[in-house]
């Protein structure tokens, strides 16, 4: 599969999960049988696993992962990129490239045209949903990093 085919499959798999409930701390039962619901990072872990890319479980660990390319601004984001947010829960890690501590509390997948697909549970979003990034209030959903794994 070439890069474009992987991105297309990634987005297709992600969209097939729309409507699944949010379940904080959800773990995948297996690669083939996802949990009944997702939290943000189990969702991205599941979707990327379906295109052969293994990523760690927690959003902060996904952000700290050394593989992939960091994208500097949203204007350069492409479909399939991971977008990490400050969020209202999270953990710090030291970003060697920025020489700074970063708080990561949420992750989603950019689907292009200013849209994101993710699993969340807040006043605006419940479960897996795709919508405009503009619907996520800043704060708490301030973008802290964009990462390209494909």
Q: What is the CATH C-level name? A: Alpha Beta
**Biggest sheet layout:** 6 strands, antiparallel
Q: Give the C-alpha Rg.
A: 14 Å
Order of helices and strands: HHHEEEEEEEE
User: Care to count the β-strands?
Assistant: 8
Mean pLDDT across all amino acids: 87
Annotated CATH topology: endopeptidase fold (from Nostoc punctiforme)
The order of strands across the largest sheet is 1-8-2-5-6-7
Shape, principal axes of CA atoms: globular
Count of separate structural domains? 1
How many H/I helical runs?
3
Helix content: 10-25%
The CATH level-2 architecture is identified as Alpha-Beta Complex
SS strand fraction: 25-35%
CATH superfamily: endopeptidase domain like (from Nostoc punctiforme)
N- to C-terminal distance: 11 Å
Low-confidence stretches: none
Describe this structure in words.
With 150 residues, the protein is of the alpha+beta class. Helices cover 20% and strands 29% of the residues. It has 3 helices and 8 strands, in the order H-H-H-E-E-E-E-E-E-E-E. It has helices spanning 3-16, 40-49, 59-64; strands spanning 69-71, 82-85, 91-95, 100-104, 106-112, 115-121, 126-132, 143-148. The strands form 2 sheets. It has a 6-stranded antiparallel beta sheet with strand order 1-8-2-5-6-7. The longest helix has 14 residues, at 3-16. It starts with a helix and ends with a strand. The mean pLDDT is 87.
């Amino acid at each position: 599969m070439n890069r474009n085919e992987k991105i297309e499959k990634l987005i297709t798999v992600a969209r097939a999960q729309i409507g699944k409930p949010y379940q904080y701390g959800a773990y995948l039962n297996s690669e083939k049988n996802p949990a009944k619901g997702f939290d943000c990072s189990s969702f991205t872990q599941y979707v990327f696993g379906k295109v052969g890319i293994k990523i760690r479980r927690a959003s902060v660990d996904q952000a700290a992962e050394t593989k992939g390319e960091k994208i500097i601004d949203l204007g350069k984001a492409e479909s399939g990129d991971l977008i990490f947010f400050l969020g209202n829960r999270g953990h710090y890690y030291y970003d060697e490239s920025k020489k700074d501590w970063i708080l990561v509390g949420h992750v989603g997948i950019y689907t292009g045209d200013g849209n994101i697909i993710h699993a969340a549970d807040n006043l605006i979003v419940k479960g897996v949903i795709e919508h405009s990034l503009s619907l996520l209030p800043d704060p708490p959903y301030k973008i802290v990093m964009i990462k390209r794994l494909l």
